[in-house]
Design brief:
The complex is a heterodimer of chains A (356) and B (312). With 356 residues, chain A is an alpha+beta fold. Chain A is built from eight helices and 20 strands. Chain A has two domains: 230 residues, 3-Layer(aba) Sandwich (Rossmann fold); 110 residues, Nucleic acid-binding proteins (OB fold (Dihydrolipoamide Acetyltransferase, E2P)). In chain A, a hairpin with a 2-residue loop joins strand 4 and strand 5. In chain A, helix 2 crosses helix 3, helix 2 runs parallel beside helix 4 and helix 3 packs across helix 4. In chain B, 74% of the residues lie in helices and 0% in strands. Chain B has 14 helices and no strands. Classes of the chains: A alpha+beta (356), B mainly alpha (312). At the A-B interface, strand 6 and helix 2 of A face helix 10 and helix 11 of B.
Chain lengths: 356, 312
């Protein structure tokens, strides 16, 4: 186990820059999730930590030791691949013991370590099988078993659950979290799935366009997104955005939506009078069937029941947005409905997309 | 559905008129007849004719020949010292040609698998020998070995490997090596192409996983590359062995089996018997023996493969 420091990391392929100066400190035993849309550079960063990609500029330290020029095998890390990358001609037991056999570990030690990992992952009855005779979830477990037998300084996960179906993904997610609680090993986990990020991470690193957008605990990113990208990426269904103009009038302020509708805010935000801004609100914060002051009439476009709750697609003038409710009264809703956007739940983003 | 209906119908009395029943029963055979007839005429007729020659006395220059002589050719063959030498030479020729083609082909494929500047051009150049007609390759190499027009004897002499620049094709001890070298040059691309294709089908993340697991280049080659190449290696070596043991072009062109039959393989011996001495009957008998040997070899390989697969 070890801490991992990433300082001013740059990566370019030829003239194409991919990562523009990444700084990140990962504490010993921490579970960090790199999340972002495909092409944001998260996998590249992970592969650079593993030593599979060369570092263009900057420094990576594992346990305080610079590893930029070390071969992957000398970094003492383990990696779980999206494709599992199991050796197809080796049995499960051989797959798991490969790294130990390469290191000339004593046979008795290998047997006991592999057996205990197999028990931990429920692989005992499968040890003599070849990977092709396993299901996706079992292969995933073998890949994790291969990683844990070595007791490496850190675990790297590269979208390990992407090839599984939804049910299995949920189950494996919980198993990974439990495994982390048992082993307490430093882990870096790459995913594009924000649910995985939210559920697994001690800290989430949201990336976009080769730049870190925000680092923080899952709820920090959810409740207090630093910018429009994070606000839109974290959460499902995603946050609603309304573009418009901020109009201050003394103690209180209004927000004029593009399209003519004016929202009374009942307070002020740190925006200049008359500046263009974006207002954000999470669907579950939109109050349906509201009464009293500051309500607006919205048109119901579509109702999506998810079983757990109901997603209502609404239109406020030309602007589409969504509301999420647990109240089944709204299942058969059509026509118009009174909605309220409660001020404490509003997020304001300035013209550059930063939260104010 | 149709067959189900037919079976159900069969359990009761068939109500269809005889003509209709005949037509229905013969339909599948009529449909497949054109293909079957074509295959039989093109493949089986020549084969049966060729085999029948082995039991007849057929000499082009003897107008009275053509009669059935039973196993006489085979009796002669069992006493024929030239045939036994040709058989030994065939093993020598096939073994060294396949081994060297495979080793060099594998090295070449491994080199071409790594990206480098100008790889496309190098790949095209490497595969060039395969495109040269075999008899041209043979002539070319024969000239290269010839001290009058070719440079190789002079180079070997300059390196001190030869006491004087002479033609190895006329040396009874060495003449076999001339065609073998030409064959290796000509056949490397085949192995390089097929092995390269197999190499490129290996998922790259396996190598990455292995390098993280702590495997160096040699260990990665042994535990990933070789197991992935094994099926391709088995099938290409099997194919090439059969082709090369039958492949007399280079020997006919370069040494014509000489000097004194020292570089004669069974295939070139058949050619010599058939088209130089015009004894088709005897040539067919030798060909039949070669056919039996190659079929035995192929069956052995197939059995070996099945055994290896079942062991998995």
């Amino acid at each position: 186990m070890a801490s991992i420091d990433i300082a001013a990391i740059h990566k370019s392929y030829g003239i194409h820059p991919v990562l523009h100066g990444i700084d990140l400190e990962i504490k010993d035993g921490e579970f960090v999730v790199l999340v972002g849309p495909s092409g944001c550079g998260k996998s590249t960063l992970l592969r650079m930590i593993a030593g599979l990609e060369a570092v263009t500029d900057g420094e990576i330290r594992i346990d305080g030791k610079r590893v930029n020029d070390l071969a992957p095998k000398d970094r003492d890390i383990a990696m779980v691949f999206q494709s599992y990358a199991l050796y197809p001609h080796m049995s499960v037991a051989k797959n798991m013991s490969y790294s130990l056999r390469l290191r000339k570990t004593a046979k008795e030690k290998i047997a006991s370590v592999v057996a205990s990992a197999a028990t931990k992952l429920g692989l005992d009855p499968l040890m003599e099988r070849r990977p092709k005779a396993l299901s996706g979830g079992q292969r995933q477990r073998v890949a994790m078993g291969r990683a844990i037998v070595r007791e490496p300084k850190a675990f790297l996960f590269d979208e390990p659950l992407s090839n599984l179906d939804a049910r299995l993904r949920e189950q494996m997610r919980a198993e990974i979290k439990k495994l982390h609680q048992d082993l307490g090993a430093t882990s870096i986990y790459v995913t594009h799935d924000q649910i995985e990020a939210m559920t697994l991470a001690d800290r989430i690193v949201a990336m976009h366009g080769g730049i870190i957008q925000q680092v923080g605990s899952p709820l920090e990113l959810y409740d207090n997104p630093a910018n429009l990208f994070v606000a839109g990426f974290i959460g499902s269904p995603g946050m609603n955005f309304f573009e418009g103009r901020y109009l201050a009038t003394g103690d209180t302020a209004n927000f004029a939506l593009t399209g003519g509708i004016v929202l009374p805010l009942g307070g002020t935000a740190k925006l200049a009078d008359g500046s263009r801004a974006t207002l954000g609100i999470r669907p579950e914060h939109v109050i349906l069937g509201a009464e009293g002051p500051d309500t607006m009439m919205a048109t119901v476009d579509l109702v999506e029941p998810t079983g757990f709750g109901i997603i209502v697609h609404l239109k406020l003038g030309p602007v589409a947005f969504k509301a999420f409710t647990l109240d089944r009264r709204f299942l058969g809703m059509h026509g118009e409905v009174a909605v309220k956007l409660p001020v404490p739940n509003l997020h304001f983003f300035n013209e550059e997309g930063r939260k104010v | 559905m149709a067959s189900l209906a037919a079976r159900n119908g069969g359990s009761r009395r068939d109500q269809r008129p005889l003509k209709k029943r005949l037509a229905d029963a013969s339909a599948p055979y009529l449909y497949s007849a054109p293909a079957l007839i074509l295959i039989v005429t093109v493949m089986l007729v020549p084969l049966v004719l060729g085999i029948s020659y082995a039991f007849r006395d057929i000499q082009l220059l003897n107008p009275f020949s053509g009669g059935f002589i039973g196993l006489d050719h085979f009796k002669t063959l069992s006493q024929d010292q030239n045939f036994y030498r040709a058989l030994k030479n065939t093993l020598w020729w096939t073994g060294w040609s396949v081994l060297l083609q495979f080793v060099f082909g594998l090295i070449l494929a491994l080199l071409l698998d790594k990206p480098f500047y100008g790889r496309a051009i190098v790949q095209a150049l490497v595969f060039l020998p395969w495109a040269v007609p075999s008899f041209l390759a043979g002539l070319n190499w024969a000239w290269l070995f010839n001290p009058v027009v070719g440079p190789i004897p002079h180079w070997l002499f300059a390196l001190g490997l030869m006491s004087e620049p002479y033609n190895i094709l006329s040396d009874p001890q060495l003449s076999m090596w001339g065609p073998i070298i030409a064959n290796v040059w000509w056949g490397i691309p085949f192995f390089a192409i097929t092995l390269l294709a197999a190499l490129q089908a290996i998922p790259r993340d396996l190598y990455e996983a292995a390098s993280i697991d702590g495997a160096g280049p040699v260990q990665r080659f042994i535990s990933i590359t070789l197991p992935f190449l094994a099926p391709t290696i088995a099938i290409t070596v099997l194919l090439r062995t059969v082709w090369i043991s039958n492949f007399a072009d280079l020997i006919i062109v370069m040494t014509n089996g000489g000097p004194a039959d020292r570089s004669q393989i069974v295939a070139s011996y058949i050619f010599t018997q058939a088209f130089k001495r015009l004894d088709f009957g005897y040539a067919s008998a030798i060909a039949l023996v070669l056919l039996v040997l190659l079929i035995t070899y192929s069956m052995l390989i197939v059995v070996l493969r099945q055994w290896l697969l079942s062991k998995d």
